[in-house]
Amino acid sequence: MGTNHGVRPRRGRPRDPDAEPRIRRYAVQLLLERGFDGMTVDDVAEAAGVGKATIYRRWASKEQLANDALADLFDIEIPDADTGSIAGDLRQVYYDALKFVNSKEGLALIRLAVSEATRDERSATIYRAFLERRIQLTEAALARARARGEPVRSNVDTTLVVQWLAGVFVIRALTGEDMPTPEDADRLLMFTMRCVMDDGSGPDPGAESNSVHG
In which residue ranges does the UniProt entry place its DNA-binding region annotation (predicted)? Predict the structure, then answer.
């Protein structure tokens, strides 16, 4: 009986390097189409062309998959900014956020958050996690600014800095008003800078109209 010296044993199917981003993409798509309850791991697996086992090897539950998929989407659409100044950092984040909420996907996500977070604690946890991450990134940006010697107030309420703009998005989604556009980034930045800066150099929001036109 012969032996197959030097022949490697057969292995399983090679790991698909594009599987994870593809799974996240379809998870977000199904979340926006059906809501959290309507999104199933079975449907995500079928849409992404993978087996359920592939998903569960990476995410232990549907909640973890949804949270990771949305976090990844936000990180791509509204990445952290480090421009060398707190005004530049906030302006870039505001511009990206405004661009996102004016997209079909972004507006759908805001509306989904409004409808689902108020009735489902699991969904509320997902959106709180996103806001908490944005708060942490903003705190880091303020810390960088202080380290550079920028006159940032010591008592900045970072939570409100993040939540006030998120509140604008929620109200406009509820009322059907147009979202402020990326061209409004500087106008919106004025309000935040007045609260953040300690030397009075922040632009006076009263110098221009206080209403933001979408």
Answer: 40-59
Let me know: does 153 contact 195? Beta carbons within 8 Å: yes
Q: Residue 192 has which token pair?
A: 């935040």
Beta carbons of 70 and 100 less than 8 angstroms apart = no
Amino acid identity at 36:
F
* 16-77 to CATH, choices 1.20.140.10, 3.30.530.20, 3.40.50.300, 1.10.10.60: 1.10.10.60
pLDDT classification of 4: cutoffs 50, 70, 90 = low
Greatest extent of the chain over all pairs of C-alpha atoms, in Å: 92
pLDDT value of position 195:
92
Q: What is the pLDDT of residue 9?
A: 47
- Give Cα separations from 198 to 85, 152, 162 (angstroms): 15, 5, 18
CA 146-150-152 angle, to 5 degrees, is 65
